[in-house]
Write a structure and sequence with these properties.
Elements: H1 2-21, E1 112-115, E2 121-124, E3 131-134, H2 136-144, E4 151-153, H3 178-183, E5 188-191, H4 197-202, E6 207-209, H5 219-230, H6 234-255, E7 263-267, E8 272-274, H7 279-286, E9 290-291, E10 299-301, H8 304-310, E11 314-317, H9 333-336, E12 340-341, H10 355-366
Parallel strand pairs: 3-4, 3-5, 5-6, 7-9, 7-11, 11-12
Antiparallel strand pairs: 1-2, 8-10
Helix pairs in contact: 5-6, 6-10
């Protein structure tokens, strides 16, 4: 009996010694799963890997002169060594925004009633077929929407589009040829000033008076749509109007991140320049240009002394540069830097669909790094 107990004890001791002397096997590291493939994010979407939120910067200031080149890229910080077991990136599925459906264009219906700038109601029983458009903007609108063949007469200062070159001219703003106008037998005469309204109506003509746009170029789109309904082609008018609005919005979106920009003086000839209450001032506001004549209303003629003292960084010479050759302006910043812009067209002078082209051209000249 004692022998069995001794043998049992010895066996337990041997087992204990064996267990203590054994080597614990090293745990096998689980296989690191490969990161799932991440498709290139669509424009405007955040990347799948979350980043720390940056503090909101103040609006950057635009340079005081036209941008010569794109700003240098900011150097990226050196990458930090990744930990031994970096967490696997998580794919975040960001749904694309559902585009808002465009409203359907309402067909033109007649009779169509329109109120003119005098508050008088004009009723169209059908689309006018023969229009005397005594206004450059309306001529351009009608040609832009494919209805230029309705224009049978205009004034002496219509130069665009080229297709309008053969349209008969009927005088200037203060010398309309009423007799010739009547002889053309128009079923509508459009005027942007009411000087000849009563004379035309006494002659038995239907007259539509709508004052020219002065301080809101966004209404170009509205007027384009209006003419689409008048002539019975709202679909084509909507295409032109929507294009105008989209392009203006693109410029505004680019500029909204900036504060003040360079100073500007626009010479319309003999140092006449626009101020508040003009379409050009609205363009300056859009492009963050600081008009040295912003304190005036409409148009005024500045003295050379005021221009020299204001020292504009940019000069817009609407009808040719007559400033840089004048020794009196030799010290002006714009002259020294040759920052004088001569537009290639009169697009900024006429509130028509191509007005936006004038905005784009000026924006590219002033800020070439922003508008390529």
């Amino acid at each position: 009996m004692k022998l069995r107990i001794i043998v049992l004890v010895l066996g337990l001791v041997v087992l204990g010694l064996t267990a203590c002397s054994g080597t614990e096997p090293e745990p096998v590291a689980p296989a690191q799963p490969s990161a799932p493939a991440i498709a290139a994010p669509s424009a405007g979407l955040p990347t799948p890997i979350a980043a720390a939120a940056a503090s909101q910067p103040q609006p950057p200031q635009l340079p005081a002169a036209p941008i010569a080149a794109a700003p240098a890229a900011t150097a990226l910080p050196a990458p930090t060594a990744a930990p031994t077991r970096a967490p696997v990136a998580t794919v975040v599925v960001v749904p694309l925004p559902t585009p808002e459906p465009k409203p359907a264009v309402v067909p033109a219906t007649y009779p169509l009633a329109i109120t003119d700038s005098n508050g008088d109601e004009l009723v169209f029983e059908k689309p006018p077929e023969r229009i005397v458009a005594f206004d450059s903007a309306v001529v351009e609108i009608l040609f832009a929407i494919g209805e230029g063949d309705r224009v049978i007469g205009t004034h002496d200062f219509v130069f665009y589009p080229p297709e309008a070159a053969d349209v008969p001219r009927l005088g200037g703003a203060f010398s309309m040829d009423i007799e010739t106008t009547v002889a053309l037998e128009p079923d509508l005469v459009f005027i942007f000033f009411d000087t000849f309204k009563e004379d035309l109506e006494r002659a038995g003509l239907k007259v539509f008076y709508l004052a020219t746009l002065n301080d809101d170029f966004n209404q170009v789109a509205d007027r384009t749509r209006l003419w689409g309904y008048i002539v019975g082609n709202p679909e084509a008018a909507e295409v032109v109007a929507a294009d105008f609005e989209t392009r203006v919005a693109a410029v505004a979106e680019t500029m909204e991140q900036f504060g003040g920009g360079p100073t500007v003086f626009q010479d319309e000839g003999d140092l006449w320049t626009p101020g508040q209450g003009t379409l050009i001032q609205q363009v300056f506001d859009l492009l963050r240009l600081e008009n040295i004549a912003a304190e005036i209303t409409n148009y005024a003629q500045l003295s050379p002394e005021v221009i020299i003292e204001s020292d504009p960084a940019i000069i817009i010479a609407s009808y040719g540069d007559n400033i840089s050759s004048n020794p009196a302006f030799a010290g002006v910043l714009a002259v020294q830097n040759e920052a004088i812009y001569v537009p290639s067209s009169d697009a900024l002078s006429i509130a028509s669909p191509r007005f936006v082209r004038g905005i784009e051209d000026l924006a590219k000249w002033v800020y070439p790094a922003l508008f390529e």
